[in-house]
Amino acid sequence: MDPELEAFIPLFPRADLTDPVVERKSFAELARAIPVPDFAGMEIEDRTVPGDPDVAVRIYRPYQAQGAVVWLHGGGFVMGDLDTEHPWAIRLADVSGAVVVSVGYRLAPENPFPAALDDTYTVLTWLAGHAAELGVDPERIAVGGHSAGAGLAAGVSLRARDEQGPRIRFQLLNQPGLDDRQETWSQRTFTDTPWMNRDKVTAGWRHYLGPVPAREPVSPYAAPARAADLSGLPPAYVAAAELCPNRDEDITYALRLLQAGVPVELHQWAGTFHGSQAILSAEVSQRQLAELGAVLRRALAG
Predict the structure, then answer these.
(1) Three-state DSSP class for 36?
(2) Count of CA atoms in the C-beta half-sphere (13 A) of 136
(3) Burial, 9: exposed, middle or buried (Cβ in 10 Å; 0-12, 13-18, 19+)?
(4) Which DSSP symbol is given to 190?
(5) Which residues lie below 8 Å from residue 147, measured CB to CB, with a gap of 6+?
(6) N or C: which end of the chain has fewer CB within 10 A?
(7) Domain boundaries in the chain?
(8) What residue ranges carry the coiled-coil annotation (predicted)?
(9) How many CB atoms lie within 10 A of CB 159?
(10) In the CATH hierarchy, which top-level class contains the domain 3-300?
(11) Distance (Å, whole) CA 261 – CA 129
(12) pTM for this structure?
């Protein structure tokens, strides 16, 4: 493990997602400890996107934005909101120069699949129809996220392709959760890795997919690794963490995209664990965050 990251492991609270309400409070406390930079000239606005139900979003508009990204927070499908994602959304907007539309999607287990996906698709459709209002080229709209949010971004890309929905220019998938089956080597082996481990992944999928009888067949929009056909999807950036249960399914998904003719940039970050980019003092975390912004800037330019 990267020594700068390893030093912080004793400070990470134990979390197993058995009680989502309690874990949400802990997650929010962690987020409040992350410094929020003050980027002068960036407009930040909370809005409500009309839908069934309406969806809360927070919009970050850098000066002379190049395009926009529908951005989805992590949290195992059960934690996170616009406030916990604020330190990351504002950084992404600054580094990428893109309008970031951070989505306050509904959380499981109170709202299992397809609630979060429906909220995401509602925001994507709204953004495509209101791009001019935000000063965005409708041909330069991306989707992306961390962890569960990255899995949602992959799922909404599949749905938009299948339903001939809004055109998505790019997928920015950071350590995505893609496969509920947990059959890969990393999912079977990483039972005690920092922050995210096999049991925690299992609990997140259980909350998201609902009771066992309702799970089969599991939709590829919920677990994109189940999709039989990945052709025709937007180009993608996939980032995996070495000591993360999601690692192998992320790499496999990137390879399957390539085999389906989809352009992919894949980066497996050595010595990192799931969510370790939150340790901002570590040099590897600084490189990860800078790369996310640079990749999105390049994807939406021109």
Answers:
(1) coil
(2) 28
(3) middle
(4) -
(5) 74, 75, 76, 174, 175, 176, 177, 196, 246, 274, 275
(6) C
(7) 3-300
(8) none
(9) 19
(10) alpha beta
(11) 28
(12) 0.96
